[in-house]
Automatic annotation (TrEMBL):
InterPro entries: DUF1579
Keywords associated with the record: Signal
N-terminal signal peptide: 1-22
Pfam families: DUF1579
Lineage: superkingdom: Bacteria
Name recorded for this polypeptide: Uncharacterized protein
Amino acid sequence: MRLASRLMGIVFLAGLVSVAVAQEASQAEFDSLESAALEEAQQKLGASAKPHPYMNALVGTCKTAHVELDKDGKEVSVVEGTAEFKSIQQGHWVTQSYQRLSKDRTIESFSVLGYDGEKQKFVGLWIDKKTPFSMPFEGQLDDKTGILKEIGTQQSLYGPILFIMVA
């Protein structure tokens, strides 16, 4: 019985070692891709080797306006805030940390924004602490005005809510 138990332990360890070696070989193969081959693979996936130029223009701190509209599109309230954009992933993405006052508390949220070369659109994800739902969005840059309009849907207790962000 002891011999069988020891043999099973050895077989189990041998299996673990072979899995670890296989994973290391795969990682080594990935790491050895030449930059030209990696760039070619990215282009096939619709990714640009260079970040969209608009991404760098967003970096910094700016004032914001949170505008709430009623169901008829009439402005209900405007609340000012601040947003800080930081570049990540060699400029392919930016993060946004956002704060505004709402009645007696500070609302904080976070988003990431990048450019999807295949879709030819800006894409991102917005999260905040007032709701447990993430809010994916897509946007287009108006080349004439330099304004990025992002549209997404937020889940709520009352069903989906359309939201629009303009940068």
